[in-house]
Amino acid sequence: MRLGVVILPEQPWSEAEGIWRDAEQLGFSHAWTYDHLAWRELRDSPWFGAVPVLAAAATVTSRLRLGPLVANPNFRHPVPFAREVLALDDLSEGRLNLGIGAGGRGWDASMLGQEPWSPSERAERFAEFVGLLDRLLTEPEVSANGRYYSAEGARSHPGCRQHPRVPFVVAATGTRAMEVVARHGQGWVTTGPRGAEFPVPAQAGAAGVAEQLRRLGSACQRAGRDVGELDRFVLTGPVLDQGLSSAQHFADTVGAYQAVGVTDLVVHWPRPSPPYQGERSRFESVISAILG
Known about the structure:
This protein is α/β, with parallel strands linked by helices. Helix content is 39%, strand content 15%. The strands form 2 sheets. The chain has an 8-stranded parallel sheet, covered by helices on one side. The two termini are 14 Å apart.
């Protein structure tokens, strides 16, 4: 089981630099940041753009894989975003994992002045967004005239450092999004069962994830793929208990998800206040006990 960590993009870089370095030193396999225009109760708090934060993190780490968890179409277009992806993959020397999701109805959905999309439109846009982004990162020149996203002679030189492109880690809980994973993903990520009350303990969370994996396996089978080809990420914190109260609790949490086929478990770097409040010393002690 690989472990990852989400570092919220809220500190000035003079403070954040040390956190990203420490995440690598602790032994995490991958580190992520949220990609939002504004996020929940932190809307009026400091918040920085995911792409420049990841660019800076790439220059002060050497082993960690990095990425947004997750980028979405609410305020992005595949053509300019592809350029940013190429730059991040280059700056990180091929350590970028691209988390992508459909987005939701929060601040991201309305801050550009549009009405939030319906669930069906959001799903349709997501499938088209990911499909076009896939082409932009693998073909030297792309023209497309989609229902929602178009491109005319879009170039993607010099291409990704990783071949044929950066890995897509696609967020999916519904059937349509799982089809996107099966078609384009190298990884899948979930925050756990829909509609569950926070915090879901590890055994119940793992049971819900197991059911999602069953449905993902069916989607992969229809697409002619083996679900075992995918890295399978679980993001704890938004719904699922992170298990960070003690080393034993965390070991049990890791074991529960590993037992149902999860390959990567992601926690949040502790903050001084909610959400994800915690003591850094305890956090480091718990993680070190596992990663040692």
